[in-house]
Amino acid sequence: MSLLEAEDVLSVAANWRAAGEQVALATVTEAWGSSPRPAGSQMAVTKSGKMAGSVSGGCIEGAVAEAAMKTIDTGSPQLLDFGVTNERAWEVGLACGGKVKVFVEKLT
């Protein structure tokens, strides 16, 4: 699925919930430096593994999806904090350093 606008992600998530899926919503709350997605970007994840939208890309996206699964299981929201220095950026596939915070919550 291509990157969706925030309201499209919310619509997809609402449709999944209406169909009986368990869904978590991840929202970028803060972005600094080379973060590829701005604050407000969202990604929805279902217990069955469907995803819509994007909060960053690369390894962060996978970590957020894993956190979303945990949030679905526990019901506890999480605030995730990812960052990388300019010196380590190339090691993780980024052009330069950056930071992103992502809030993950279960939709009820």
Task: Provide a concise account of the structure shown.
The chain has 108 residues and is an alpha+beta fold. The protein has helices spanning 6-18, 58-74, 86-89, and strands at 23-33, 42-46, 51-53, 78-84, 98-107. The radius of gyration is 14 Å and the shape is elongated.
Notes on the structure:
This protein has 108 residues and is of the alpha+beta class. The chain has one domain. It has 3 helices and 5 strands. The chain has a 5-stranded antiparallel sheet, with helices on both faces. β1 (23-33) and β2 (42-46) form a beta hairpin.
Topology:
Blueprint: H1 6-18, E1 23-33, E2 42-46, E3 51-53, H2 58-74, E4 78-84, H3 86-89, E5 98-107
Antiparallel strand pairs: 1-2, 1-5, 2-3, 4-5
Number of helices: 3
Global structural class: alpha+beta
**Overall mean confidence score, pLDDT:** 85
String of helices and strands: HEEEHEHE
Lateral arrangement of strands in the main beta sheet? 3-2-1-5-4
List keywords for this structure.
single chain, alpha+beta, 3 helices, 31% helix, 108 residues
